[in-house]
């Protein structure tokens, strides 16, 4: 059964991509991260764009998602039969959203209207290579990423878009200006001021030119999408160095940490509604109440980051606007690792060939990651039930998501 499921994942992935992309991207290129790495060698890293980072092969990277050591276990993969796969994936590379396009357009208008005689020649007659009709739509690269992932291996709003219907989250975080205080403070920091000054110099602008943190982040996003969609480092990215990207990458992570990560408890606890559904499918398989061997769910970074955080993956150390460049560079929370485009989380259910016990393993970006609190790659289902006990048995989404008076 599981073999049959794996055999059809590529077909299903292709179908889902066709029906969800809605746009035939004839101008964009299919971009491979290795090719981009070669093109920008010794200049910038293409893995420096937060959640705008292209999917990259982490299977041989020395990453510790759980910030913990894995102990030696007597249970090995050869001792187990794979019974079921539950997967949560993020969409692949896409075009910028309408908000990002608007910010890039505003920056472009400012530069071409006021400084056309001094900005780099390529920028003087430059126009966006995409328009609002493709805002947020999968690019050719995004299609290829997910199709290739499907070869290697049901949409329900309350489960995958819990962040849209949790009133408390919307009130306390998403639409609360105070929730983004650290990001705003970073926008006024010496690091951001230096980044703005650097961008001015690279654009040949006078010191008196008015560029904002929003303008600077728009230029950063333009570079990210140049690489993601077209694989070109010769336009926006050509005016940036790695130090500039590192600071802007941190700004993206500051936003994600306080909006989707561990910055506020409600951010990740509301993902329990999805975890409950995943567990129910596993439990029902063990009791014979379902024969489903695979359940594929496709969402966004707003889906995957809260779920990973709830499970204990990623560093929960508070990100601060006051951090030095050294602290920024050594941070553990990086969305370029946790949630690049096409990021994926697998929950795999096994049964021991000899002891007949049920085991669970979690895979992130195709890497087997020890489950926090268990410490080994294969955790007994009974132990998983205890680890997740509160969120499986006591957490009530509707109650937790009511606005606090």
Automatic annotation (TrEMBL):
The keyword Magnesium does not apply. Its main location: membrane. One of its GO terms (molecular function) is inositol phosphate phosphatase activity. It catalyses: 1D-myo-inositol 1,2,4,5,6-pentakisphosphate + H2O = 1D-myo-inositol 1,2,5,6-tetrakisphosphate + phosphate; (2R)-2,3-bisphosphoglycerate + H2O = (2R)-2-phosphoglycerate + phosphate; 1D-myo-inositol hexakisphosphate + H2O = 1D-myo-inositol 1,2,4,5,6-pentakisphosphate + phosphate; 1D-myo-inositol 1,2,5,6-tetrakisphosphate + H2O = 1D-myo-inositol 1,2,6-trisphosphate + phosphate. Keywords: Hydrolase, Membrane, Signal. Its EC number is 3.1.3.62, 3.1.3.80. The keyword Lipid metabolism does not apply. SUPFAM superfamilies: Phosphoglycerate mutase-like. It is an enzyme of class 3 (hydrolase). CDD domains: HP_HAP_like. Residues 1-22 form the signal peptide. It comes from the Eukaryota. It is found in: Membrane. One of its GO terms (cellular component) is membrane. InterPro entries: Acid_Pase_AS, His_Pase_clade-2, His_PPase_superfam. Transmembrane segments: none annotated. Belongs to the histidine acid phosphatase family. MINPP1 subfamily. This is Multiple inositol polyphosphate phosphatase 1. The lineage of its organism: Eukaryota, Sar, Stramenopiles, Oomycota, Peronosporomycetes.
